[in-house]
Amino acid sequence: MTQAQIGRTQPSGVVGATFGDDWWQNGIIYQIYPRSFADSDGDGVGDLPGITSRLDYLSDLGVDALWLSPIYPSPGLDVGYDVSDHTTVDPIFGGDAAFDRFVDEAHKRGLRVVLDLVMNHTSHQHPWFQASRASRDNEYADWYLWLDPAGYTDDGTPIPPNNWLSWFGGSAWQWDEPRRQFYMHTFLVEQPELNWRNPAVEDAQFRMVRGWLDRGVDGFRLDVFNAFLKHPELLANPEIEGATLWARQQHLYDRDQPDFPDLIGRFRAIVDELPGRMSVGELFASEAERAVALTTERHMVFDWALLQAPWSAEAYGDAIWLRETMFGHDRWLANVLSNHDQSRHATRLAESAGIADTDAIARAAAVVLLSIRGTPYLYYGEEIGLQDVDVPVDEIIDPPARRALVDPDFEWWNRDRCRSPMPWSNGPGHGFTTGRPWLRFGDDADGRNVASQAIDDGSVLATYRRLIALRRSSEALRTGTLQLVSVGTRDVLAWHREAPGEHVLVVVNFADASRSVTLPSQGDESFEPVAGSHVDPSAPGAGNALTLRPLEAVILRVG
Ligand code: GLC
15 phi and psi, to 5 degrees? Predict the structure, then answer.
């Protein structure tokens, strides 16, 4: 936060009364990467019966909803984000019966179920694509983005129709011999892009959405949703200066089209046929402004301002301030520090600040995540401070990471590193599997697991439990206004959360050394620490002076 921003009036949160009992705003959403959570049958791959067997753990943790990364049949080239049938559940996860049982058991415990919808593209093995590539004049011919070549080189090689790029490296256009045309793919060659401008595609997708709602699903995460629509004429993007191939074009025509909000409106109309159903869009490669523009009632959008901030009071202050200012009173925020595509924040934030104690960072970051305005999204394992895992080159699964090994024009961070199996206990298989896990555990899994942290009051897990319990009981933390406030020390960030009848102050020391601050006071308020990064949060002394330990964050009730 810059000095100019300190003390500026922040836009306040929407007043509590408008929230009613909207779980998607009040609650906490927990992301499960199904392959990595719990394996019931010893094949080394997590599955739905495994997740079902851990539902008591999740409801004890105090989360409200479970978002499952894709569970549909898939050849697995993008580890499930290449879907070959969106309407059913992959037998590797236990199939449809296991899913229905999972939903029932989750609902019995008051846990909602959020599915990951990958609607921008399909697998090349999807029957729609198989039909589409077969000829130019069948029912599915226009379900994908097909174009003729821009021409042919002297040796007869077809030239791609425009300069669009794949996020996973190389051109976005793949030549397909049967049709003698190119098809477009933002991701892998094996993930052809659907043509959302064809009404038949929209109808089919929305029928599929209705099918999941009928099966009791409470919400959806929309994969790369701002990429669904392209410019109707698939125009070339303007070329600009930039550090990477991707950055050397202005992505004007391959995403973020002006008529996209109408499409989301039609999607929301279906979801809103049932009460309390939420959605959250994954913003693909765009700035926070786009997230703001696409946020509507019961529809959140992940922006990346918070997730991209390094661990410093200034960067976090800036990110919180920017997001509060941009989202304003009427739009709800989706808060996230880790997911299946990014370095886990215990590792990332510790590295960004050169701090060795990743648990201390994980505990302090938990205070931030669970006490800023918006819905917290937890990524499985962050509650035990899981770190990125070093995966040897010959074990790499993530396809763009494999491409980066051989393509000098393409850089990629190996996403396997943040997808390692959940360690539940000590010993072989760590309570995750009786077989050989599909990805390796971290080297620390014998000391860092749910069982060992459950009996340690000072653990990351115990900290999450305390903070979640406090948040559940605090209207101010769930729905209150947020106002950043200066406490006069560069490394310490503080903010007020206020709801009618309740006021809390959050104070976070980003330094790996103790810091003393004076709490902002208008008169004779009292400050009572109620929770924080440490079991015994520090309390202020005379004159509201508060000394925080290294990386200590406290939540104080203001009386
Ligand atoms: C989203 C997913 C990512 C996937 C990509 C293509 O960004 O989060 O895991 O690879 O979409 O589906």
Answer: -65, 145
Of the residues 47, 82, 90, 223, only one is catalytic, namely 223
Q: Is 224 in the pocket of ligand 1 (CB under 6 A)?
A: yes
SS (H, E, C) 278-304: EEEEECCCCCHHHHHHHCECCEEEECC
User: Which pLDDT score, from 0 to 100, does residue 12 have?
Assistant: 34
177 is catalytic: no
- pLDDT at position 21: 62
Q: Return d(Cα 98, Cα 366) in angstroms, integer.
A: 32
78, 117, 228, 307: which to mutate for ligand 1, most atoms within 8 A of CB? 78
Taking the C-alpha atoms of residue 29 and residue 344, their distance in angstroms, rounded to an integer, is 17
Nearest CA residue ID for atom 4, ligand 1: 81
Tell me what pLDDT residue 523 has.
80
Residue ranges of alpha helices (H) inside 370-438 are: 399-406
CB distance 81 to 187 below 8 Å: yes
Judge if pTM exceeds 0.90: yes
Half-sphere exposure in the Cβ direction for 346 (13 Å, CA): 22
- What average pLDDT does the structure give for the chain? 95
CA of 214 to the centre of ligand 1 (A): 26
Question: Is 67 a pocket residue for ligand 1 (Cβ < 6 Å)?
Answer: no
Residues of the chain with pLDDT under 70: 1-21
Q: What is the pLDDT of residue 20?
A: 38
Phi, psi of 540 (to 5 degrees): -70, 155
The first and second tokens of residue 136, run together, are 């130019």
Output the pLDDT for position 329.
85
